[in-house]
Amino acid sequence: MRNIIIILSVIYLSACAAAGVTYTSDPYKKISNAYQMVQMNRYIPAERFAKEALKEFIKTNDKFGQGEAYTALGGLYKQMFKNQTKAIKNFKNAIKAYQEANNYTMVGKAKFGLANAYHAGNQLDKHCDMYNQSIADYKKGKKLNPKSDFRINPRFTSFEEMVNAFKNKYCS
Question: What confidence tens digit (pLDDT) does each residue in 49-84 have?
Fold first, then answer.
């Protein structure tokens, strides 16, 4: 019995720990580590990395970094923890931070996440409008800085195509 408890404790702790990820003090690398942990279905360390990064971004007043951390947390809470209230709050914080950084391409990304959180939280009166806003802000951002971009779902060739696919599926 004692051995079973020890084995279960080791399994539990290894699932929560960020084993296999090199420690870094770089908050942008911590965001990358958070996404890596999500890919490995290790949500507790992913959340920890994102929160640690957010603290550093707030301390250094890095608005773009804050937007990145809030976006990562929003996605975690929406998808993995199924907590739409926290997801919506984090996506709204991301939008504000990206706006303060004057990066509207990323505002579009955060609004897309917010639209999906609204949909998952059955706030259907808000999600379709947010999809439209995400495209408008993305286009505005591309005009201001044509090189500003981010990774999207590889099944789509553009951000606009991806958002329109969600609109067509959920906003008919």
Answer: 999 999 999 999 999 999 999 999 999 999 999 999
| Residue 31: closest CA among 80, 71, 89 | 71
Q: Are 94 and 71 in contact (CB under 8 A)?
A: yes
Q: Which domain range does residue 28 map to? A: 2-170
Average pLDDT for the chain:
90
Please, which residues have CB within 8 angstroms of residue 36's CB and are 6 or more apart in sequence?
A: 21
Distance separating alpha carbons of residues 120 and 102, to the nearest angstrom: 28
Q: Could you tell me which residues come within 8 angstroms of residue 5 by beta carbon, excluding any fewer than 6 positions away?
A: none
Q: What are phi and psi of 20, to 5 degrees?
A: 90, 0
Q: What is the CATH number of the domain that holds 59?
A: 1.25.40.10
Contact 138, 159 (CB under 8 A): yes
Our count of domains for the chain comes to: 1
16 conformational bin, left if phi > 0, alpha if psi -120 to 50, beta if neither:
alpha
Q: Are 104 and 98 in contact (CB under 8 A)?
A: yes
Taking the C-alpha atoms of residue 12 and residue 19, their distance in angstroms, rounded to an integer, is: 12
Q: What is the DSSP letter of 26?
A: -
